[in-house]
Design a protein that fits this description.
The protein is of the alpha+beta class and 256 residues long. It has 3 helices and 14 strands. The strands form 3 sheets. It has a 7-stranded mixed sheet with strand order 3-2-1-5-12-7-10, with no helix packed on it. A 5-stranded mixed sheet has the order 4-6-11-8-9, with no helix packed on it. A two-stranded antiparallel ribbon has the order 13-14. The chain is elongated and about 85 Å long. Keywords: Membrane, Signal, Transmembrane, Transmembrane helix.
Length: 256
């Protein structure tokens, strides 16, 4: 194999390791069939999932570079449909699942939206009589989101609609991809968050520098192996030594 191809492949691998993963916004829509998956990014995480309908009760993993947007179409499957979110990278993220409401409208009694953490001791229920909710983070690495409608509600219906942003609480991740939690759920001060961000940037810098060093070492090793094991180069070097001019000291220092 051409060593230039190997060098190019190695360099690309090092760059891929050093570059952070782009943020992905997964949209989950509730309808009368279940849960519809849609990745709004130009390069989806799972292209084969686009537009796929999942059954209620599906579990989704939360990472520092992935968030979910929950929508409604004024209806749910089987009058009760839930889905669960689990923080999968606790090493970088805290055991908290955050929710940011952007749209919330419940027009009739008999419709409930419930958030319940893994310990089931911290819940938030939204209904026609209580639609007040600010951005908050629920303790624990798991959060269950459930929508229920009473049998008196005729579906499909426009009696309710919502839009929630669900994401993991990951200190140090840029603010433009992870929203801040509200004051009640905030345990880290602004100083601590800034320090965590600086630490994360330093770690990413060290990792990037290490990847670049590894790439250069691999390049040097490939070049050494190539020149050492190439018979054409050895033969050329040996011929150059044989054909090199010599000086006869006894004949006045003339070249032969």
């Amino acid at each position: 194999m051409d060593p230039r191809i190997l060098l190019l492949a190695t360099l690309c691998l090092g760059v891929a390791i050093a570059v952070p993963i782009a943020m992905h916004d997964i949209q989950i829509t509730f309808n009368n069939s279940g849960l519809v998956w849609r990745d709004s990014n130009k390069m989806p995480l799972y292209d084969r999932y686009q537009g796929r309908v999942w059954g209620c009760g599906r579990m989704w993993s939360l990472t520092p570079w992935k968030k979910f947007t929950l929508f409604s179409e004024g209806q749910v499957a089987g009058r009760s449909c839930g889905t669960e979110f689990v923080v999968s990278e606790t090493g970088r993220c805290m055991n908290k699942v955050c929710v940011g409401p952007e749209i919330l409208h419940i027009d009739k009694n008999g419709i409930e939206i419930k958030f319940e953490n893994m310990y089931k001791n911290e819940t938030k229920t939204l209904s026609h009589s209580d639609m007040t909710m600010q951005t908050r983070c629920f303790s624990g690495k798991s959060l269950m989101f459930t929508v229920t409608t009473d049998t008196t509600i005729t579906l499909p219906s426009n009696d309710f609609r919502f839009k929630f942003i669900v994401y993991a609480d990951c200190p140090g991740v840029p603010k433009d991809v992870i929203m801040e939690s509200d004051k009640d759920s905030e345990e880290l001060s602004k100083t601590a968050e800034l320090k965590a961000a600086q630490t994360m940037n330093m770690v990413l810098g060290i990792v990037t520098a290490g990847c670049i060093c590894v790439v250069f070492l691999i390049i040097l090793l490939l070049n050494y192996c190539y020149f050492r094991n190439n018979p054409d180069l050895k033969q050329h070097h040996h011929s150059a030594r044989i054909n090199a001019p010599t000086v006869d000291v006894t004949d006045g220092g003339k070249f032969k």
